[in-house]
From TrEMBL:
The keyword Membrane applies. The lineage of its organism: Eukaryota, Viridiplantae, Streptophyta, Embryophyta, Tracheophyta. One of its GO terms (molecular function) is metal ion binding. This is Calcium-dependent lipid-binding (CaLB domain) plant phosphoribosyltransferase family protein isoform 1. One of its GO terms (cellular component) is membrane.
Length: 771
């Protein structure tokens, strides 16, 4: 079932940017920074000043530096009453926007009315040296200040001025001329930055037993359970079956924790004394720094912990220690990979413990070049504007490009590198609109513009892929293209043998198979891991905000969606379409639609029956030839978001509104009732299909169950006769007769169902016993 291609507007486009990859140039830059276009910048590093004169009435001075190039002006912070200030700040002016021929660096004195000029230094742009990494940074020099007439003024300024590119070490922390409208409070929010996800561990708490508990009411049998809390995660055991003061559980509870360990593990032993009333029998606080770490499935040593109880005496909490204790086996699991993203597009599959990591198999390089055709994401001064930045995530490393202010065609030209440990992983690149440009906090969120996923196993090694990817976002009103992002990707493989060997290894670390976690556990732990990662990254400076991290990690991918369910149904039909096509082809052969083909199949069938040792070699040779034939039409581009496959272009508005509804729902009751009824009708159809499958399976069981004594008698008699016939008749003869009977001419067929099918459909199933 071949689907029509999606519209050109949503398609991937191959591009030819002017990048260094593959080009032979004498520039040192092209071998280290070759997946992006070179951007020339004029850098000015303002280090410090000395011996500045006092300008105001008090004789003191509040100095700051103004770096001026044509219409662009960058300003350092000012110091109160300081004649030897230190700024150590870098300014970067984009060469393509430079229109002036002179650079002015002015030292001014901050004043209430008008700022006084202390002195200035002038540079002719033609005289400024060029620096290319890995050359050492240019050493700053002292320059004597001059007044407006060119006469020597009091004071000196230490500066370094040079021409460079975005590969310069000063680039990430520099003030950029294209962000001139951003105030000093917002500068931190627009810089490029590399983040690392926190190191995540699973914590296994095996609650074994407790001893000598002291319930308040001694006349009743205690119903004791243990509640374990770690930060905002809380789990509890079942109530113990042994209703005494020495209860037993032997239950495992799993948690996620991030290094550095900030929260202790808190256990409370509680007694269910009423329907909604629990009494605390004891409490225990365990610091995770003292917990044993294990790398394999060997059990760690168990320990007894004393339980403490708080008793209120005269309105004050007092701690009472007594002989109650609890038996626990706690460990930090280093052999698992803590899943913090959907398993379908994981970017990392290594275990937590570094000792278990395999060597890297290659390097992934990503050049984020530019975007074009971006939509206005917000309104400022009565007009639409977008302040775009990119975020890329692979493994534990997240990168964020600088924000290009007020531009629908931003050019980033930033290049990043990751180590690759498994080729069957996915890199995610998201584009966002910066909602915190001017240091504002609170309700504003960074709006999503779109994202791209690239699976490394679909890339050829050492080839540079340069494509323009459509940025697609699903809204309640439908799918929208918000622009295109241009990327350059290269996956370099260090050793081909190691990479090919990876395909024989299990996808996840071995602990996932030796001690597997349940699907429900994994789902809950993944949700907790996502929360921890988003919380930690939102505390960085500049913060990678919660909404950005959640969009990159696909937090809501497990939520019900009618659109996604339809898409998955058609994906299954697409997979089964091959089998259905083979079935139709066999039906045509059996019905002699093309007599010549049917005769050839007869000959092939007879050869395979007479020489059965040829069956498997023939099958594998056929698969080999299909693979070689398909090589000519192999995909030459990485896969990308497909609106047709996702059923995003044909989704009903109400289905999309349901997909974007909150959980629990926030829609009016009549809409919720309508959706509930629709879901019931779909579930009814699914229920019928499942019931039919169960009926067919039960009919097979009833062949020998004597539920229908006559049917079982017939089947048992047939089995005996078949056993005798097959014992005396060579298997090849039987196979030949069955095959020739199946391929018989339509003249010898009739349209009624066959005898075995009639017999099978008459067998009883347990559907008769269903209420």
């Amino acid at each position: 079932m071949q689907k029509p291609p999606q519209s050109v507007d949503f398609a991937l486009k191959e591009t030819s940017p002017n990048i260094g990859a593959g080009a032979v140039t004498g520039d040192k830059l092209s071998c280290t920074y070759d997946l992006v276009e070179q951007m020339q910048y004029l850098y000015v590093r303002v280090v410090k000043a000395k011996d500045l004169p006092g300008k105001d009435v008090t004789g003191s001075c509040d100095p700051y530096v103004e770096v001026k190039l044509g219409n662009y002006k960058g300003v350092t912070k000012h110091f109160e009453k300081k004649t030897n200030p230190e700024w150590n700040q870098v300014f970067a002016f984009s060469k393509e926007r430079i229109q002036a021929s002179v650079l002015e660096v002015l030292v001014k004195d901050k004043d209430v009315v008008i700022d006084d000029l202390i002195g200035r230094v002038m540079f002719d742009l033609n005289e400024i040296p060029r620096r290319v990494p890995p050359d050492s940074p240019l050493a700053p020099q002292w320059y004597r200040l001059e007044d407006r007439k060119g006469n020597k003024a009091k004071g000196e300024l230490m500066l370094a001025v040079w021409m460079g590119t975005q590969a310069d070490e000063a680039f990430p922390d520099a003030w950029h001329s294209d962000a001139a409208s951003v105030g000093p409070d917002g500068v931190a929010n627009i810089r490029s930055k590399v983040y690392l996800s926190p190191k995540l561990w699973y914590v296994r708490v095996n609650v074994i037993e407790a001893q000598d508990l002291v319930p308040t009411d001694k006349s009743r049998f205690p119903e004791v359970f243990v509640k374990v809390a770690l930060g905002n995660q809380a789990l509890r055991t079942r109530a113990s079956q042994i209703k005494t003061i020495n209860p037993m559980w032997n239950e495992d509870l799993m948690f996620v924790v991030a290094e550095p360990f900030e929260e202790p593990l808190v256990l409370t032993v509680e007694d269910r004394v009423g329907s909604n009333k629990d009494e605390t029998l004891g409490k225990c606080v365990i610091n995770l720094h003292a917990v044993q770490r294990r790398l394999d499935h060997k059990p760690v040593n168990s320990r007894w912990y004393n339980l403490e109880k708080h008793v209120i005496v005269d309105g004050e909490k007092k701690e009472t220690k007594f002989s109650s204790r609890i038996h626990l086996r706690i460990c930090l699991e280093g052999g698992y990979h803590v899943l913090d993203e959907s398993t379908h597009y994981s970017s990392d599959l290594r275990p937590t413990a570094k000792q278990l990591w395999r060597p890297s198999i290659g390097i992934l390089e990503l050049g984020i070049l530019s975007a074009h055709g971006l939509m206005p994401m917000k309104t400022k001064d009565g007009r639409g504007t977008t302040d775009a930045y990119c975020v890329a995530k692979y493994g534990q490393k997240w990168i964020r490009t600088r924000t290009i202010v007020d531009n629908f065609m931003p050019k980033w030209n930033e290049q990043y590198t990751w180590e690759v440990f498994d080729p069957c992983t996915v890199i995610t690149v998201g584009v966002f609109d910066n909602g915190h440009m001017h240091g504002e906090a609170g309700g504003t969120k960074d709006a999503r513009i779109g994202k791209v996923r690239i699976r490394l196993s679909t890339l050829e090694a050492d080839r540079v892929y340069t494509h323009s990817y459509p940025l697609l976002v699903l809204h309640s009103s439908g799918v929208k293209k918000t622009g295109e992002v241009q990327l350059a990707v290269r996956f370099t493989c260090s050793t081909l043998i190691n990479m090919l060997h990876m395909y024989s290894h299990p996808l996840l670390p071995k602990m996932h198979y030796i001690h597997p976690l349940s699907v429900i556990q994994l789902d809950s732990l993944r949700h907790q891991a996502m929360q921890i990662v988003s919380m930690r990254l939102s505390r960085a400076e500049p913060p990678l905000r919660k909404e950005v991290v959640e969009y990159m990690l696909d937090v809501d991918s497990h939520m019900w969606s009618m659109r996604r369910s339809k898409a998955n149904f058609f994906r299954i039909m697409g997979v089964l379409s091959g089998l259905i096509a083979v079935g139709k082809w066999l039906d045509q052969i059996c019905n002699w639609r093309n007599p010549l083909t049917t005769i050839l199949i007869h000959i092939l069938f007879i050869i395979l029956v007479l020489y059965p040792e040829l069956i498997l070699p023939t099958v594998f040779l056929y698969l080999f030839l299909i693979g070689i034939w398909n090589y000519r039409w192999r995909p030459r581009h990485p896969p990308h978001m497909d609106t047709r496959l996702s059923h995003a272009d044909a989704a009903h508005p109400d289905e999309l509104d349901e997909e974007f509804d909150t959980f629990p729902t926030s829609r009016p009751s009549d809409i919720v009732r309508m959706r509930y009824d629709r879901l019931r009708s779909i579930a009814g159809r699914v229920q019928t299909v499942i019931g039919d499958l169960a009926t067919q399976g039960e009919r097979f069981q009833s062949l020998l169950s004597w539920r229908d004594p006559r049917a079982t008698t017939l089947f048992v008699t047939f089995c005996l006769i078949a056993a005798i016939v097959l014992y005396v008749t060579p298997f090849q003869v039987v196979a030949l007769l069955i095959g020739l009977y199946a391929l018989r001419h339509p003249r010898f067929r009739h349209k009624l169902p066959s005898v075995p099918l009639n017999f099978f459909r008459r067998l009883p199933a347990r559907s008769d016993s269903m209420l």
